[in-house]
Amino acid sequence: MMSILAGLTLSAVNRLKGTQKLMPLNSQKIYQQLQVEMAAVGSFKMYREILRSGTGPCIPFMGVTLNDITFIEDGNSDYTKDGLINWTKRLLLYTSLSQFMEYQKSCSFDYVETQMRESFLRRVQRARELDDDLYELSLELEPLQDPGASSTSPTAKMQKTLRQSFTSMRNPFFSS
Q: The pTM is what?
């Protein structure tokens, strides 16, 4: 989920406010819900609750675990005031890592390779390498506006193209 959110918040995508308004309402609601669920507020409190209450396979966001480990490591000394090993710190580290590893154990599912999925993943990889090009494309779609201008919507031709692509879109992960 965090990878999807990160992709949608790239500057090349996030700046397209007019295009975002053309998205189906259901997609807009899903995006807003994703933002709420993955917010870093309260040390990812909502995400942690969803993860704990979920059933079935999942791939947890490693950033939360790494964040926990960093805070445990930086916030607790290795030794007590008496010079003994700080076992509380070791227990906190163990708990954080074992929870993450537990999700790996429960994550078994049949993965069927499809040409569409592979093609999508190759495009994603290229997109990561072409961030500047993506920004240029976003400027073609929605040119920068003067600060006093009120409209941020795409051109009429682009609106038609976007509507067509939104209505014909298929999920590249689960289609066969």
A: 0.61
In order of 69, 85, 145, the CA distances from 157 in angstroms are 50, 68, 18
If 0-12 CB within 10 Å is exposed, 13-18 middle and 19+ buried, where does residue 99 land? middle
d(CA 132, CA 17): 19
Please give the single-letter amino acid code of residue 94.
Y
The 10 Å CB-count burial string (b at 16+, else e) for 22-34 is bbeeeeeeeeeee
* pLDDT digit string, tens, across residues 51-97: 888 776 678 889 999 999 999 999 999 999 999 999 999 999 999 99
Beta carbons within 10 angstroms of residue 38's beta carbon: 19
Give helix then strand counts, H and E, for the chain.
10, 0
Residues 108, 115 contacting (CB under 8 angstroms): no
d(Cα 63, Cα 100) in Å, to the nearest integer?
A: 11
Any idea which residue has 């964040």 for tokens?
A: 67
**The two structure tokens encoding residue 160:** 């038609």
Residue whose structure tokens are 């400027």 = 139
Continuous segment of H or E residues that includes residue 64: helix 62-75
